[in-house]
């Protein structure tokens, strides 16, 4: 049974996915052993996972894809997409006849292989629409925070990592970063010693590189949450059309709502995509009428998620997150 302390631990890890258990314990007013024990249980039960991810600006542009398929083939096509390491957030929507997903290709060739070759040649695919992400609202105030008992502003401030006093220059990814990033993408809380074992680097070199990538905004730590297990089983994707002059205002406003898990400015027939997670359909209705309805939105299409197949990096087993394959190790 997930209780208030569990939910606050989850919220704390959302603020800083690499926060030491001792700091979380001090902020919540419980023992370090309590935090460690409960976190291990939440991980084992498939409720949460911390991932180390690169920002969209650090790689090729991300894409969101809507694939209309023959209903009988939707499950098989979704499962095949979910197995691809460059594809995330795979969901069945629109009565089971549509698949939505996100892809973050490392190279133009990888992008073209999926969008121009693999998917169009799949016989079960009726059509697809690809939206390039121009701007994504990620991290900090843009995280989903629909907790029943969220942390206070003071607690959030105590857990928020210190920002560098001077802005770091953009930091390009190096080919040697591949193993480090692959390891963090499977478990963002791996220790420096564990990361050293994966990369073949010294612990000090690992620590310096993680700190540098993080300070430059190239690397961030995201908390995957099995929201249904926290009492929020209703998810939906909103596709909004707004006037160009209103894009920044509407995007920023919706991204800061507690129910919003992800917001992006995209190309295509709409210009904003928003993912929301709610307690029930009545909650979703109020979000659409009260929050979205108060903004200068010209058009709105809502697709409820019937089944989540994959999140940012975790395949789903019903409502639970599954453990990924172990990260590759240098020399193997």
TrEMBL record:
Molecular function GO terms recorded: sequence-specific DNA binding
An annotated GO cellular component: cytosol
Record GO biological process: response to amino acid
Source organism per UniProt: Modestobacter versicolor
Keywords annotated in UniProt: DNA-binding, Transcription, Transcription regulation
Annotated InterPro entries: AsnC-type_HTH_dom, Dimeric_a/b-barrel, Tscrpt_reg_AsnC-like, Tscrpt_reg_AsnC/Lrp_C, WH-like_DNA-bd_sf, WH_DNA-bd_sf
Coiled-coil region: none
Keyword set includes DNA-binding: yes
Highest rank taxon of the organism: Bacteria
Residues of the HTH asnC-type domain: 2-49, 173-233
Protein name as catalogued: DNA-binding Lrp family transcriptional regulator
